[in-house]
Amino acid sequence: MKKRISLDSTIKYSLDKVSCFERAVANQLNHKNGYYGDLFIILSKIYQFYFLQIGVDSREKIIELSKRLLKLEIKHIHKNNFSKNIQNYINKGYVTVLGGNLISLFYSEQYMEKDWPHWFIITGYDTDKKTLLCYR
Q1: I need a surface site. Which of 7, 19, 103, 105 has the fewest CB within 10 A?
Q2: What CA–CA distance (Å, rounded) separates 67 from 45?
Q3: What residues does 132 pair with on adjacent strands?
Q4: Where does the chain show beta strands of DSSP type E?
Q5: Which residue, among 74, 71, 14, has the nearest Cα to 44 in the 3D structure?
Q6: 123 and 95 in contact (C-beta within 8 Å)?
Q7: How far is it, in rounded angstroms, from Cα 96 to Cα 64?
Q8: How confident is the model over 26-36, as pLDDT tens digits?
């Protein structure tokens, strides 16, 4: 039996919007291979629409699906030796996407005002200042 979904209910699933996580990953995949980022967005939206789970973080499932279908190698950076691991991955040329919260970022409009999880594309680091450099 087919399941019917009204157009009003699809608004809840952000099919017409790309999240900062999807955008960060897609930008890097397109940079490495001209269309993989677009495929990642398509997979992400199909997965989100097909499973229709409001409020459920489906990033891990989408990453696993993308790894399998697009034959990607995706590594998680563990908290132990975090900054050293990021530096090593950047030095090896790996794409590095890091989650953060804009409430802690002094130049953000949400600084000390509102929790606002966001994803950053890390392009480098400054060991003297102990900072990461982000693509803006």
Answers
A1: 7
A2: 16
A3: 125
A4: 96-101, 117-126, 131-134
A5: 14
A6: no
A7: 17
A8: 887 887 777 88
What whole-number distance in Å separates Cα of residue 12 and Cα of residue 76? 29
Q: Which residue has 């900072």 as its token pair?
A: 131
Please name which of 117, 119, 65, 118 lies closest in space to residue 95, comparing C-alpha atoms: 119
Answer positive or negative: Cα dihedral of 82, 87, 88, 93.
Answer: positive
Predicted structure pTM score = 0.61
Residues 24 and 44 sit within 8 Å (Cβ to Cβ): no
In 10 A of CB 100, how many CB atoms?
15
pLDDT reported for residue 5:
47
User: Distance between CA 99 and CA 101 in Å, rounded?
Assistant: 7
More confident of the two residues 73 and 1? 73
Beta-bridged to residue 126, according to DSSP, are 131
Residue 57 CA: distances (Å) to CA of 47, 48, 63, 100, 123: 12, 10, 12, 16, 26
